[in-house]
Amino acid sequence: MLENIFRYMEEKGVGPVEAAIEGTHEIGLAVTATTLSLVIIFLPVAFMTGYARRFVNEFGWTMALSIMVSLLVSFTLTPMMSSRLLKVKESGEHARSRESKFAKWIDHSYLQALEWSLDHRARIIAVCAGVFLLTFPLYHLVGRDWIPTDDQNEINASVDFPEGQSLDRTIALLSDIAKRVGKIREVVLVEHIRTG
Q: Measured in whole angstroms, how far is the alpha carbon of residue 128 from the centre of its chain?
């Protein structure tokens, strides 16, 4: 949105307020469509079920809502601030003389790298293909898991018993389970907590 408003000011020479109105009106549908397509991608993540739900549920909601907020900002705050704060850059030698040496160096280096890349397309494609192919062996070195790496060496288990079972019978069964688990060689401590 901001780029289109600035383009109106720079290329068409219109004032900031008119540029904000026309620039927003011109690409409003495209911005809305792009935003909704992103929401459609992230919203199903919020409704995932099973084990993955614990890790990605909040992420899906956060992304979907933040994208919707960005749509609201792009149609309200961005045009308003653009109409008040945007200024068209001076053209010609006077504007160039005010640029810092660092900015000129960045600009010059980028243009040189871009020209070299366009003149040596085969090498660039080969490097990109090589980096892509390296991802396969590196993927196995990185490892992947849903469980966080900070393992506390603890396992929690909950047991459901039939409704109406006596308290004595429940305690006896839980004690039996605790004894069986305690006999496993790697287990150091077994605690069972009674809940009402």
A: 24
